[in-house]
Amino acid sequence: MYDLIIIGAGPAGLSAAIYAQRAKLNTIVVEKEGCGGQMSQTYEVDNYPGLPGISGMELASKMRMHAEKLGVNIVYEEIKSINKVEDYYLVHLMTGGVYEAKGIVIASGATHAKLGVKGEEEFAGRGVSYCATCDGAFFLDRDVAVVGGGDVAIEDAIFLSRIARSVTLIHRRNELRGAASLQEALFKCKNVSVLWDTVVEAINGQEAVESLSLRNVKDNEDFNLFVSGLFVAVGINPVLANIDGLLLDDKGYVFAGEDCRTNLDKIYVAGDLRTKPLRQIVTAVADGANAIASYTEDIS
Fold this sequence. Notes:
By secondary structure, the protein is α/β, with parallel strands linked by helices. The chain has helices at 11-22, 56-69, 132-135, 151-161, 180-186, 281-299; strands spanning 2-7, 27-31, 73-76, 79-85, 88-93, 98-106, 110-112, 128-129, 143-147, 166-170, 192-195, 198-205, 209-216, 222-226, 229-232, 236-238, 242-243, 267-269.
């Protein structure tokens, strides 16, 4: 019987683990893939206080080492469902195992949204990617495109400009949503161009991506763009284990305030999965700390 099970080892989960360990709570972290979450797929993190210019992978590694130095136990398992029995929770694993805990911190984060167009599934891993820092090196001196208009899309385009021959940023609106500082850096990249008011209709090729079918949403003109790779950065979708009765918004995010308390007793949510206006590493870390503060208050 654990005091607390933390689901997810991204910045929110690792922060919660550190605070839980310091509070002498018997805690385990259950992570499906690897520590760091989306943070580990970010080429450069330049807005985390005190660590300007650090890579996402290095920051994830530092957080994991900090947690492990304090004695945090991280296990790599996928969760099937969670249900309450009397005054504690059963966490069922895909492998058939079960953990018991008095409280749960859900920090499972979010995953990359997809375009949902013809060819996307077919060419995933063969020219279609959702992680520029993971796959960018495969496109050295080749022509690539990025679709999206937020921070991640701009960061991807900047990163790829250092590797690819040319980068085309495709955005469905006539202005970008990303931070002004990122836009300024983007427009300084000489091998990056932007296609405004444009959407991807299909991804084409034989064995790998060869071209994109595009449409201008203003004049409804169809045209092709010949590229070897497409990097999709159009947002994220929440990732949540099956928990009966948990209150969600219409997009699947968990309702919780800054104290990270959900509508269920001793279940807390931290990080990108929580309903909030800003989803950043720094806010995820804050959520992890707040979740533990709420739990210790609730059991005192």
